[in-house]
Design goal:
CATH architecture of the largest domain: Alpha Horseshoe
Oligomer: single chain
Mean pLDDT: 87
Largest sheet: 5 strands, antiparallel
Helix content: 40-55%
Radius of gyration: 30 Å
Order of helices and strands: HHHHHHHHHHEEEEEEEEEEE
Structural class: alpha+beta
Strand order of the largest sheet: 1-2-9-6-7
Distance between the termini: 105 Å
Low-confidence stretches: 1-19
Number of domains: 2
Length: 345
């Protein structure tokens, strides 16, 4: 006599695990990725994504496919816009990754791509993009236990060394010190800590103390040391800097688009380490009148005067400080804008 058949009931979730939880498109994407058929991998992963049937590791693998494709493309054509579009996709996919190996490959490859873009002798926009990729790699590494930090630093060193060397060579051929400072400031935006660049800029800052410098950092979101075209442009026709005191005549040109009042109490001297000391000068001086056909100079009253739009003012300033204070720049800031003058040491 046959024994009755026993039925084994398997929960639906367990049954799905037994037959596999990846769609055919994702499995084909995985196989293509493993075989380095990256175009096929991206195609299959895109199909899987559109179908909405993906596994937990899908985003990591999709990111790796795009990442390796971006690296290959960058080596062939560093100036290709396709690299940028790949990286945009990668950043969306890898943002929430918890896989250390994926994160490491992401940050090291992204930094490597950045170095390739910087050293390709392209336009300034591509150079900015390359340094931005290295910076993004550094930031993501820092958020994830500094994974890949040594490789990222090596990419930065390689890129910065070649780029700055080229800028310094170009600058050495420029006779005009204002044009030279402009060239050097372009490099400082992306390599602010480079010692050779700092030394060259220091020399131009000193030479240009008496000049109004109007530089516009096109394509740069937050340049740290540029003169704002739409603020207060400043110069020192005369200046004396000692170990404990800086004093001289400071002039302003108002390019803020607003009529305002110059206030000598808003002027401060900032050191190379960020220390500040206020203006304690006599605050005597003048501001130009508002009739360009009959130029006049109206004396300051209690260190204040009318700083009209496109007008100028001159004021005697003085700053005292200790021996540990190294002057870096003089700043003026009010509700309409800011102006800085870098002095050089």
């Amino acid at each position: 006599m046959k024994k009755p058949m026993k039925w084994i009931i398997i929960p639906l979730s367990a049954a799905l695990l037994l037959v596999g939880c990846k769609s055919k498109a994702e499995r084909l994407g995985d196989e293509s990725l493993a075989a380095d058929r990256l175009t096929n991998a991206i195609t299959f992963y895109t199909k899987a994504e559109k179908a909405g049937d993906v596994s937990e590791e899908f985003k990591d693998n999709f990111a790796l496919a795009y990442l390796r494709m971006a690296a290959k493309t960058a080596k062939k054509d560093p100036l290709s816009n396709v690299v940028r579009s790949y990286i945009e996709q990668i950043n969306k996919l890898v943002l929430e990754s918890k896989n250390p190996k994926v994160i490491e490959e992401y940050v090291t490859t992204l930094a490597s791509i950045g170095a390739i873009q910087i050293t390709a002798d392209g336009e300034y926009g591509t150079i900015l993009e390359g340094f931005s990729n290295i910076k993004n790699a550094e930031d993501f590494s820092a958020k994830n236990g500094k994974v890949g930090s040594a490789a990222i630093q090596a990419s930065r060193n390689q890129a910065e060394s070649k780029y700055v060397a080229g800028v310094l060579k170009n600058a050495s051929d420029i006779e005009n010190s204002i044009a030279k400072e402009y060239e050097l400031l372009l490099a400082e935006v992306v390599a602010p800590d480079n010692a050779e660049l700092k030394a060259a800029l220091n020399t131009t800052h000193k030479k240009n103390r008496g000049d109004f410098l109007i530089f516009e950092a096109a394509g740069v979101e937050s340049p740290s040391r540029w003169v704002n075209k739409y603020g207060y442009v400043t110069a020192f026709p005369s200046i004396s800097i000692s170990g404990t005191e800086t004093k001289g005549e400071m002039q302003f040109w108002n390019s803020s688009g607003n009529n305002t009042e110059l206030d000598g109490s808003l002027i401060k001297l900032v050191s190379t380490t960020g220390q500040e000391t206020p203006n304690k000068g006599a605050n005597t001086g003048w501001c130009s009148g508002n009739n360009p056909l009959k130029p006049t100079k109206e004396k300051l009253v209690a260190g204040k005067g009318k700083l009209l739009d496109e007008g100028t003012c001159s004021i005697a300033v003085s700053f005292s400080y200790g021996s540990d204070f190294t002057p870096d720049y003089v700043e003026y800031k009010d509700q309409f804008g800011v102006g800085r003058k870098y002095l050089g040491q």
